[in-house]
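Limitations

Structures in this collection are predictions, not experimental determinations, and the ligand pose is part of the prediction. Treat each record accordingly. The example that follows, with adenosine-5'-diphosphate as the small molecule, is included so readers can see exactly what is and is not provided: the inputs are given verbatim, and the output is the predicted complex.
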Amino acid sequence: MKTAIFPGSFDPFTVGHAHIVERALPLFDRLVIAVGVNEHKRSFYPPEQRVQFIADLYTHEPRIKVVGYTDLTIDLVRREGAQFIVRGLRSVKDFEYERDIASMNRRLSGVETVLLFTDAHYADISSSVVRELLSYGKDVSEFLPKKP
Ligand code: ADP
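Predicted complex:
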């Protein structure tokens, strides 16, 4: 059983994230979308709400599981019996960051990271931009995925 973890803050989960999920799903038997909770980082949406929002989007897809986690991604990988981590790449900036994390995760646990290049249509969408718009009371519905 090929299982991949798609970890992230998902604060909030955007159409860019959803597109990565859509493209990753055919590559694996199971996909675990994992909402990372960092106690030292203040979040915009509480972790339970982020998990619930994503879980509601994928109730029709039995191969997707949504969890929250507070430990290291490699520990979650082990708990879920996963062999892969999926991440999205938008830019050179993402690349440098993802390369270091992927390399360290492989060193520590042997897990392979599969990086998917973002579709150009979603490359400028980030949770932080969505949060910024929300804080000024703007409508962000076009950036948030809707249940199919
Ligand atoms: P983190 O805080 O771990 O970077 P994010 O929730 O910001 O978590 O992102 C999770 C993953 O989704 C990362 O690999 C990030 O590069 C990717 N990602 C974020 N936004 C997009 C997007 N618009 N298109 C594709 N991938 C994205």
